[in-house]
Here is the input.
Amino acid sequence: MQTTKPHVALLASPGLGHLIPVLELGKRLVTHHNFRITIFVLASEASTAQNQLLESSNMDVLNIVSLPSAEISTKVDPGAHIVTKIVVIMRESLPGLRSAIAAMKSRPSALIVDLFGTEALPVADEFKMLKYVFIASNAWFLGITVYAPTVEKIVDEEHVKQQKPLKIPGCKSVRFEDTLEAYLNRNDQLYGEYARVGLEIPEADGILVNTFEDLEPATLRSLTDAELLGRVAKVPVYPIGPVVRTLGPLVLADPVLDWLDKQPSQSVIYVSFGSGGTLSAKQMTEIAWGLEQSQQRFIWVVRPPVENDASGTFFTVGNDSDGTPDYLPDGFLTRTRDRGLVLPMWAPQTDILAHPSVGGFVSHCGWNSTMESLLNGVPLIAWPLYAEQKMNATMLTEELGLAVRPKMSTSSRIVERKELEMVVRKIMVDKDGQEIRDRAKELKHIAQKALSKGGSSCTSLSQVAKEIEMSLKAKVQGA
Ligand code: UDP
Here is the structure.
């Protein structure tokens, strides 16, 4: 007999930045709405961090199903953009998804896919499930994604060739220097794939976005205004954010939290460039000097440098006698031992940002990191690297007043140590950063309110849950 507890399936595309918010959304549907949740993940992307994340006890409430790994080596050029590879992996995983759903005794009532899973929406139709897209980014990004493919000529001629801002009805324009890589080369497979995603998103029954009403009121209005972007999106948009990890650390890293316990309140700046961000050796040297000269306490997540070439060559990494990796200045670890922690590869970020000793975040502005910082009232130094991060950085600095953006030297094309020292001091201690620090606290309260019972994001997710419950009820009654 079919149980009346709604069952929802979520499909996560590869990459921790995609998986983490999908897991969180799943958990929220369990804890707030008592739903049964199945999460489809792609086995091919198994990384240590992903495995630890999936195995952690917090996942007990979720049924995680690994889809068979997709062989893509013959389907995509080895040098293709990472996003192209992700969409091809997603495409190749569709038969596995279809079989997995067909084999389920109690079929889910709805399928929620993320940005790169839109080709799975017809699979939901095949099984008569409701279908949603969860954009783990903001409404502005959703706006450009659904709008740009409907005005390809303007994107090509005015935005890319003439480098004019792309006007999106009702939203802030996107400056050329902030634009998405996907638009830059019409001949690259990425261009077509990305445009397709933009056209497919409005095929869903609803679009969930990791933002909240008070963060992007005008953009959200334009997405639902029939005269503006509503014409393009056509479907309800549900701002349900911030959707961020709220339970224990991803990895056991208690020494980090112990160390933080010993530091004064809001005295530590956390430096991390997301799950995949890397910098050049020259840039890392400047960060090391900038942090040291700022005289602030810090936690820095380091990865071996990758130079700015398409093949992304890794350096052979050695160490100084004090253990300093050879891509950092000699003796750096010894000189900063009392003030800083250098963590290789990965850190328990949400726990760090939630710690009262943390007062600032040098971030690549990935949207998960941004929301984690915002929800903890931590101001940012915005240092975008790829994807929609430049748009995020612009929003954070120019619209929200939550961040400061370091200037790149026009000659060396890197952020030099003096500049970093200046922005770190500004965000952490200097008087001229007080407004940003105050704004971070204000936004934290606004975000918490949105998530609380009766708040805008809580209500939005309840609407989605209600829709799914109604559809299940209709099915049970019709059976
Ligand atoms: N993250 C983490 N530890 C790290 C680096 C990243 O826990 O050392 C988590 C971070 O908290 C966030 C996600 O990985 O939830 C990164 O997502 P984001 O959108 O910020 O950036 P992406 O990695 O997708 O570029």
About this structure: Residues 15-17, 20, 250, 272, 274-276, 301, 346-347, 349-350, 366-369, 372 surround uridine-5'-diphosphate (CB under 6 Å). The chain has two domains: 7-243+453-478, 255-429. Confidence is low (pLDDT under 50) at residues 309-317. The longest helix spans residues 456-478.
